[in-house]
Amino acid sequence: MVGLSIGEKHFIQGGIAQDIRSDGRKRLTPRPINVKTGVISQANGSARVRMGATDVIASVKAELGRPTALQPDKGKVFINVDCSPTAAPMFEGRGGEELSAELSVALRHCLLGGKSGSGAGIELSSLVVVEGKICWDLYIDGLVVSSDGNLLDALGAAIKAALSNTGIPRVNVAAGASGDEQPEVDVSDEEFLQFDTSKVPVIVTLTKVGKHYIVDATSEEESQMSSAVSISVNRQGHICGLTKRGGAGLDPSIILDMVSVAKTVSEQLINTLDSQIAAAEAGEDES
Amino acid sequence: MEYVSPEGLRLDGRRPMEMRQIRGEIGVVDKADGSAVFEMGNTKVIAAVYGPREVPNRSQQMNDRALVRCEYTMANFSTGDRMRKPKGDRRSTEISLVIRQTMEACIMTHLMPRTQIDIFVQVLQADGGKSRCLIAAIGTRSACINAATLALSDAGIPMRDLVTSCSAGYLNSTPLLDLNYVEDSAGGADVTLGIMPKLDKVTLLQMDAKLPLDIFENVMQLAIEGCKAVATYIRQVLLENTKQLEYRRGT
């Protein structure tokens, strides 16, 4: 994907070893992040996040559905990511499917919690309209428009921003339905409920290059990685999910070390993201 | 249904010969050789161009000209109802083909033998109400071609002219410029036209439904006017971009 000469590879690796990367950042400095909300007018909520040359869009669509029999008190959330061929010619045709699947699975791990639905970053019980009968299905779609590394963190940030931008219509349930009948509902198109996103975690990926690990790697740096650990952390500093990618094995003690570093980095990230989202929302209201 | 009110206004408040709001922007995908966003009303399209570059698949290489390829994709969230797995269906293949043929006609492929040029068009938003993603896809053709033209110019690929596209239709005995989704699905005639405005040549012409010959002439004339208006706008965007580049270079 990234064609690098031996000299360039040494330059990147050497820079990381000496704590100054090719774009002048330190190992644990992320790129500036730029958030724009409400970019897709047909969706219930959407956001576009840019980190350097990485550009992703997330959209949230809500549809009424039926809760599963196993979890009658919980709504459903579906996360799906697509890699547009505009990001790289290798995503043409079915070429992007492998990466799309990898990203979708990682996002589900990081945001949705276990099979029982407990520990999810997104509050699933708030999506229920009538227990056991009607709930909201949230379809979260990510689209990679331009790719320069660290797609998972960008997608995580975009989904968080899109969820804060999401308005779920208020639903009035007609009383009187009993037993197995499906109650009639009236979906309001004027009143919207704001989604509580304070518990939605952010994702921090630490990419290990040589002996050190870096945050927010560019695609050149990612091509030199031995392995990467993506950790999703919420505002309380709790770990909500974790995935490891890449071929090489990691020492367990290093993983623990990475987790604690991710925790400190995530604090900054949550703060910048929150202020960016607030600014984007304010800007949208004005226009 | 009444598509043109007695006062001469259309459903979205436009006059019969008025286009939707158009907006173009260059350089939205940093990693691509050329890229652009083009919006026509609610339709929003990103185009990215990679190339001219080495042909990865040797058997497709042509020794006398460049290979032009195009892929059209619609995002899951681009239509009113969520689409499920639209990749590689017949309609997008057809639109890919239309865009490829239209752009190939204007690219000077003989100057770049043994190379490949990829045009990727991604629909972010298609004008359209609920669930009729098929018609919504057809309505994006013009925007796709305009976006591709901008992206190709941004990539600095030699072209004979800037191809621009616009549609026109005929409803309530009135020729209408640049149909929106509701008008498109009304079932009247719909002419999509692509022209090279400087050379005054038609590179794309598609029509569904039937029209009497003399009315077709009027409708096509209207579409030509639309294309020329788009061309003027695209030229402006390119000029503005070049000025910016010059300014940044400091000359």
UniProtKB/TrEMBL annotation, chain A:
The keyword DNA repair appears for this protein: no
GO term, biological process aspect, one: TRAMP-dependent tRNA surveillance pathway
Subcellular location, record wording: Cytoplasm; Nucleus, Nucleolus
Residue span(s) of domain Exoribonuclease phosphorolytic: 31-169, 200-264
Keywords, comma-separated and alphabetical: Cytoplasm, Exosome
GO CC terms in record: cytoplasmic exosome (RNase complex); nuclear exosome (RNase complex); nucleolus
Protein name per Swiss-Prot or TrEMBL: Ribosomal RNA-processing protein 42
Entry's family note: Belongs to the RNase PH family.
Organism encoding this protein: Malus baccata (Siberian crab apple)
Any one GO MF annotation of this record: mRNA 3'-UTR AU-rich region binding
From TrEMBL, chain B:
Annotated compartments: Cytoplasm; Nucleus, Nucleolus
Pfam families: RNase_PH, RNase_PH_C
Molecular function in Gene Ontology: RNA binding
GO cellular component terms, A-Z: cytoplasmic exosome (RNase complex); nuclear exosome (RNase complex); nucleolus
Recorded superkingdom: Eukaryota
Record carries keyword Ubl conjugation: no
Stretches assigned to coiled coil: none
UniProt name for this protein: Uncharacterized protein
